[in-house]
């Protein structure tokens, strides 16, 4: 066991090292391009954007607007994952129902996000409920499809074994279905976070009075690229932290049984 922990720590350290070097290379390329253009109104350099981030942070505006966007992302994410996971499980387990519901899933999967946002604002109003519902509707169909395909890919032999041992619904969900669906949950979570926060920015851009999207809209009107980049990169950093600090460790723990079985 200590050997496994040591290997995990070495792998984690190596991954962080690679990520750090990759980000340094990205910033270096950005700085070189900004230096070559030599026009801060087109592309401000990393130092200029960092100064904006620091000023907005100490003023409290960056924290306030980032927290507002993060709250909307979390609410929409939980709503979309809950409904999409339940729908995906049901459609994957009941093929007859899936045949009837599949056109609906395809319809919502291809419905433009902008249309959903505008309709929710028109029907519900310019409020938080409309914003969260609009984002969740856009993501729910994607989660449903991913989980449904995961259910279809489950090993029927394991399901037969569960039937032989007469496992109840809860035990089947916990010990049979969820372990096999872990990669599909991971894909849904990762894609969901990447898609949802971008849609949240559009929602805020169109109809909210706070958030990163609202700030981007404000500084877009002022043609201030440094502030647009400052708020955008700050939230990208937040989502990167969530990916590396929460999603990947959870995925590693949830997939541990596969490595033991191998």
Strand content: under 5%
Overall tally of structural domains = 1
Reported for the largest beta sheet, the result is: none
End-to-end separation in angstroms reads 16 Å
The radius of gyration is 22 Å
What class do helices, strands and sheet pairing give?
mainly alpha
Can you tell me the residue ranges where pLDDT is under 50 for at least 5 consecutive residues?
none
Query: What would you call the shape?
Result: globular
CATH topology title: MetI-like fold
The H-level CATH homologous superfamily, spelled out, is MetI-like
- Based on the coordinates given, report the CATH architecture: Orthogonal Bundle
Q: Encode the helix/strand succession as letters.
A: HHHHHHHHHHH
Instruction: Write down the overall mean pLDDT.
Output: 82
Count up the helices.
11
CATH class: Mainly Alpha
Number of strands: 0
Q: Estimate the helix proportion, in percent.
A: over 70%
């Amino acid at each position: 066991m200590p050997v496994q922990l040591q290997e995990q720590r070495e792998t984690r350290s190596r991954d962080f090292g690679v990520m750090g070097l990759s980000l340094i290379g990205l910033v270096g390329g950005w700085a070189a391009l900004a230096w070559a253009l030599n026009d801060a109104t087109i592309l401000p350099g990393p130092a200029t954007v960092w100064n904006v981030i620091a000023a907005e942070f100490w003023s409290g505006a960056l924290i306030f607007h980032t927290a507002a966007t993060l709250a909307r992302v979390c609410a929409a994410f939980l709503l979309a994952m809950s409904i999409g996971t339940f729908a995906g499980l049901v459609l994957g387990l009941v093929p007859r129902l899936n045949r009837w519901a599949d056109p609906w899933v395809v319809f919502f999967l291809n419905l433009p996000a902008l249309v959903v946002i505008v309709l929710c604002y028109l029907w519900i109003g310019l409020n938080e409920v409309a914003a969260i519902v609009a984002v969740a509707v856009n993501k729910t169909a994607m989660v449903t499809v991913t989980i449904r395909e995961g259910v279809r890919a489950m090993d029927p032999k394991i399901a037969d074994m569960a039937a032989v041992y007469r496992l109840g619904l809860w035990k089947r969900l916990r010990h049979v279905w969820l372990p096999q669906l872990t990669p599909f949950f991971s894909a849904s979570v990762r894609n969901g976070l990447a898609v949802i926060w971008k849609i949240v920015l559009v929602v805020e851009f169109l109809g909210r009075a706070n958030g990163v999207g609202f700030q981007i809209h404000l500084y877009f009107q002022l043609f201030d690229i440094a502030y647009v980049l400052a708020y955008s990169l700050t939230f990208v950093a937040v989502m990167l932290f969530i990916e590396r600090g929460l999603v990947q460790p959870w995925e590693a723990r949830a997939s541990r049984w596969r490595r033991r079985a191998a």
